Structure formats: structure tokens, C-alpha cells
What we know:
By secondary structure, the chain is an alpha/beta fold. The protein has helices at 4-13, 148-156, 195-205, 220-233, 251-257, 292-311, and strands at 20-24, 37-38, 48-49, 53-56, 63-70, 84-88, 100-103, 107-110, 113-116, 126-127, 138-140, 161-165, 170-175, 179-180, 191-192, 211-216, 236-240, 261-265, 269-270, 276-280, 283-288, 320-325, 329-330, 336-344, 347-350, 367-371, 377-378, 383-388.
Amino acid sequence: MISVSEAIQHIENHFSKMPLVIKPIEKTLGYILGEDIISPINMPPFKQSAMDGYAFVHSNNNDYLVSGEVPAGSNENFPVNYDEAIRIFTGSRIPDDADTVVMQEHTERKGDNLKITTLPEKGANVRPLGNQIKIGDVALKTGTYLNEGAIGFLAGLGITKVQVYKKPKVSILVTGNELQKVGKKLKEGQVYDSNSITLKLALKQLGIKKVRISKVKDTFKAIFKTIKIELKKSDVVLISGGISVGDYDFVKQALHDNEVAEVFYKVNQKPGKPLWFGYNDTTKVFALPGNPASSLSCFYMYVLPLLKAHLGYSNPYLPKEKAILNSDIKNKFGKTLFLKGTVENGQATLLDGQASSMLKSFAVCNALLVVPKDETLIEKGQKIEYIKLI
Length: 390
Ligand code: AMP
Ligand code: MG
């Protein structure tokens, strides 16, 4: 059985990036930029006023004659003498001769005569050409997450298309004779299938929407056949359940018979010991334990980084931080523990309901508290490392 850090390293060895695709910017929300974007223009593209007011040549003079007006969008370039001011508006082009804008509120105007009541500093309220970014400079780097702000920034530079990493196609294969579809009546001995929805939504959070979901009974034939199909359809296959040592756990054999090479099976952790990872050609396969908390824990720790690497993130891991523990935590298992907790104002609280079958703590946690395998006790008041989930 390998350690958590070995498992993470094995998976990192299989990180790869998806191919690049060119998309119109309005279709790139949530994608990762696959090229450095060079600004094709200066921004602002001209010396621009940051205020409604008057442009003038800075001096100690307080009295001016208003000799012109430049509304936003006008390309008028009035000459400006030292005793003249140009009426100007936010976003207007400032005449070449002027160097300062006084805000309207700091002036008094009578007809074409203007008195400056509070003299601004030289250069005030002027956005110089290329103040935000200059032509030829890198606007955004490869690996940038494209949110609405980033896309708006690109739009402001007149960029219409960018290269991004494609989203991986993912298959979820849920095994279990006992599973009932949510919405149907539970019969004796059945439980609702929650893993398919949890995993599907975890993928959705990453912007991965092309997800094929198959539900199969615990027969070797059905599992073998479905794996065979999904390997061809997807970049990443997630299998839920059937990877333990029970008589109806056929996933490992079915993966082997489908020539999915095993990278590792079983990690010295709790929850999620029977995690399996392998690959067939370029398709990566995770067999996740069926217990809902194990499945989700393994998703965050192992599946998510691999998917983020595929998506082009420069740092695919969830953030790790430290907090002060509110109560003692014992570890008598010799395993790395991932415990659902909450962290608020630097204080970590362990939640009730840590069993691998229970999702109730996952429902309200914002962190996975990490207890290393060799630590038998972390005492109240000590620092504990945690993985930030939200
Ligand atoms: P397995 O890994 O197949 O041995 O399943 C371990 C436990 O997880 C069993 O109690 C299953 O009933 C439960 N389980 C397996 N798959 C799911 C699922 N999709 N949704 C909810 N519980 C599941
Ligand atoms: Mg099962």
C-alpha cells in the first residue's frame, strides 16, 4: 500500500494538458488561457480624461477662457493657450497641449469664463496613453483562469478570439446492485445513488459539462463492457464502487482485462483506502471507493488535480493552510486522515459524522483537516494543516 504523497506523485506523473482550441472570447468563461496574449493596442488608446471638468496647461493661474469642448468619442484636438481651458468629460480625449484636468466641482463658470477654485496638481485626472497596458506588452499569461473580468479586459483591448485548453470528456460509471435512482421508492436493501450526482456536480464546478453517466449492476460482464465503451469515449473515466475485496467487486479485474494499466491500488489513508488509478493509452482511469465520503474525498485529493492539470491550470492543487485545532484529534490507524471540518477565523473544528458512508459532514464542511499517518495525536491548541474546499 502506498502513502498519500506517493499517490499524489504517481498521479502528477500522469498530468497532461488537453489540446488547444481557438474560441470567441464570449465562449471562454471558465476556460484556461493557452497562450500569452499580447496587447494589440495602448490602453487607454489616447490621453484620456478621468473626470468631467476642464483640461488646461498647469500653472498658478486661476482664471481661464473656455475655448472649446471635447465630448467623449470626439477626436477634436484643440490648441490650448496658457489662459485657455477646454470643457472635457470622463473618457474624452485630452488635447495634446493640455496636461491637467480640473474636476468640475472645483471650478466656477460664468459664460465662457472659468475660475478654478481648487487648483489640482499637475497631471491630475489625466490617464496617460497606455497607462493600463502598452501595445506589445503581455496582457494575460498562459494559464490564466478566464473569469468575466479577464474576458472583459481582453474585450477592452479589442481581442475577439483566444486559444484555450479544451475541456476533457469524462465518463462516470456507477456500480452497485443496491443502488436506486433518486426520485424512485427505496426497496428494502437499497440505497440511493448519490455518487453519480456528487461527481457530476463536482465536474460541473470545474466547467466540465460533457459527462457520460452509466449505471451498471455488479456483474463482471456489464462492468467489463461499459469500461470498454467509456475508455473510447472519454479522456478520464471515473468508476464508483466495486473496487474493494468483496465477492461482487469486479472493477479491478474488468480494468485489467480491458488493458488499463494499473499505476496504484490502495492508499494508506482514511477514508478512501481502496482507490485505484491507471491508464489506457491517453485515457486516465480512477476507480473510486463506493462509500460516498470516500468517493468525494478521493475526488478532491486526486481526481481534481489531474483534471485541473488537463484543463491547463498552472497550479492544480487545492490550497493548503494551517489553523489552530479546537479539540484533540487521535489517529490510531497509522493512516493519513482526511477529516471534514470547518475553519473560521483561523480555528479548525472537527465535525461529527466522519464515517466513509456519511456525507452529512461533507454537507457543511469547508475544509479537510489533514492528520499525517505518523501523528498519533494532534492536541487542542496545536496547528493542523487543512485543505481548503470553499
Ligand atoms: P462498494 O465500494 O461498491 O463496496 O460500496 C461501498 C459502500 O458504498 C456500500 O455501502 C454501497 O452501498 C455504497 N455505495 C456504492 N455506490 C454508491 C453510490 N453511487 N451512491 C451511494 N452509495 C454508494
Ligand atoms: Mg458495490
